[in-house]
Amino acid sequence: LQGLQKLLTESVRFLAPYEVRQGQEAVARLQGDLAARRQQLQPKKKFAFRALKKEAPPGSE
Q1: Is 60 inside a domain boundary?
Q2: Which of 7, 13, 17, 44 has its CA 20 to 30 A from that of 53?
Q3: Tens-digit pLDDT profile for residues 5-28
Q4: Is residue 53 part of a domain?
Q5: Contacts of 1 (CB under 8 A, 6+ apart)
Q6: Has residue 25 been placed in a domain?
Q7: Residue 31 lies in a domain
Q8: Percent over 70 (pLDDT), the chain
Q9: Total number of domains in the chain
Q10: Alpha carbon of 32 to those of 21, 25, 29: distances in Å?
């Protein structure tokens, strides 16, 4: 993906503005899809009870 971005950046001088815009939109769409896929594949947080505060034993004050 970074290679595509670099290629597009280097090719800006030779491409028509329409083609540059289309390339930028395609790269942005791919980056969004990648971020969504990473979020989807990330392991889900497991449920855990919160630890309860232990009361101080009597006389320890």
Answers
A1: no
A2: 44
A3: 898 888 889 889 999 999 999 999
A4: no
A5: 27, 30, 31, 34
A6: yes
A7: yes
A8: 79
A9: 1
A10: 16, 10, 5
Any idea which of 8-12, 32-36, 55-59 has the lowest mean pLDDT? 55-59
DSSP state of 20: H
pLDDT band for position 46 (cuts 50, 70, 90)? confident
| Contacts (Cβ under 8 Å, ≥6 apart) of 11 | 20, 23
d(CA 15, CA 18): 8
**Residue 10, token pair as written in the block:** 């280097």
> Which comes out higher in pLDDT, residue 42 or 21?
21
In whole angstroms, how far apart are CA 19 and each of 11, 12, 13, 30, 44? 10, 9, 11, 16, 40
Domain that residue 24 falls in: 2-7+17-39
